[in-house]
Write a structure and sequence with these properties.
With 316 residues, the chain is an alpha+beta fold. It has 2 helices and 18 strands. Strands 1, 2, 4, 5, 6, 9 and 10 form a 7-stranded mixed β-sheet that branches. Strands 11-12-16-15 form a 4-stranded antiparallel β-sheet. The chain has a 4-stranded antiparallel β-sheet with strand order 14-13-17-18. A hairpin with a 5-residue loop joins β15 and β16.
């Protein structure tokens, strides 16, 4: 007769102690793997391009069929921006930025975050994560990422200014645009004065004998570009056009300015200065004549000296 025997090794023995420890670790790992075995799937949506100051929405795609009595929705970009908790059939707000609004549609259980008044430094990858807390175990219901790129349109203007030597010149300004690549071209009576391939990065190739350029970076991260066209000393009647194109524009911007305006501005400034000089001359002569009359009157008529005293004159 075959007799089966089962030997039970006591864990107190040194040779078996290590084996019991491995068993405990294996059981713990098995339990943890049973609690949460699913891998998190990250969905990526197409990138969004938004104008500065406008609003956009980040949608949160998640498993709506899963049982969930207590779950969270959070939006982040490198760090947490806004989060909400759903419990007792209502949403409770947690820390959230002022320019972010939470949108919940009860009928479809759709979740989204609205970003208001976007600025250039708001560009980046936004992540919306929805997690179930109750019933346990905790479970990721969905993670979705969206890249948002904020751009800014240039504000274009043209004006006449004077050089230090008094000669007129025309100024074209493109301010507050992003990204940096920009085309700014001067056109004189239909003829280009500068190369059309222009940007802040390659501006050294834009210079011609008639045009000077100046670029700068603003505190909000946007860029500005100005160019000057020097006019000849003798007046001429020529129409200039400042043509600007940028990726944020639906079509290029053209600002027109006549050289006649610049010469008229110069004449007005000279006329104004001459007129001021004439006024000062007349005032000086009048002051001198009045002073002489009062002094002669005081000498010839001593009785008036008490009434008209030099010390009582307002200019003494």
């Amino acid at each position: 007769m075959l007799t089966e025997r089962m030997y039970v090794l006591p864990c107190g023995m040194p040779s078996v102690k290590h084996f019991c420890g491995l068993c405990s670790v294996w059981m713990l790992l098995s339990f943890l793997s049973a609690v949460k075995t699913e891998s998190v799937v990250v969905n990526t949506t197409p990138a969004q391009t938004v104008l500065r100051g406008k609003t956009t929405t980040v949608n949160c795609d998640y498993d709506k069929t899963s049982e969930k009595d207590f779950f969270t929705a959070a939006l982040s970009r490198e760090q947490s921006l806004c989060s909400y908790i759903y419990q007792h059939k209502s949403w409770a707000k947690r820390p959230c930025k002022d320019n972010i609004s939470f949108i919940w549609t009860p009928e479809t259980e759709e979740i989204s975050f609205e970003l208001l008044n976007l600025h250039i430094n708001d560009s980046g990858v936004y992540t919306c994560a929805v997690e179930r807390v109750v019933p346990p175990p905790e479970k990721s219901l969905g993670v979705q990422t969206t890249f948002i790129r904020v751009i800014a349109q240039p504000v274009v203007s043209a004006s006449c200014v004077m050089r230090s030597d008094g000669a007129p010149k025309m100024l074209c300004s493109s301010e507050g645009f992003y990204p940096a690549a920009l085309e700014q071209v001067w056109i004189r009576d239909g003829e280009r004065n500068t190369y059309p391939n222009s940007s802040l990065i390659n501006r050294e190739y834009l210079n011609s004998s008639d045009v000077r350029w100046n670029s700068s970076i603003n505190t909000d991260g946007s860029y500005s570009l100005t160019s000057f066209v020097h006019l000849p000393p003798s007046p001429e009647e020529v129409m200039y056009h400042c043509w600007v194109n940028h990726s944020s524009l639906n079509q290029p911007i053209t600002v027109n300015i006549s050289s006649t305006e610049c010469y008229e501005t110069k004449e007005e400034q000279h006329t104004g200065s001459d007129f001021s000089g004439v006024i000062c001359l007349i005032a000086g002569i009048s002051f001198g004549v009045l002073t002489g009359v009062l002094l002669v009157s005081a000498v010839n008529y001593p009785s008036l000296s008490k009434c008209v005293s030099v010390s009582n004159w307002p200019f003494a």
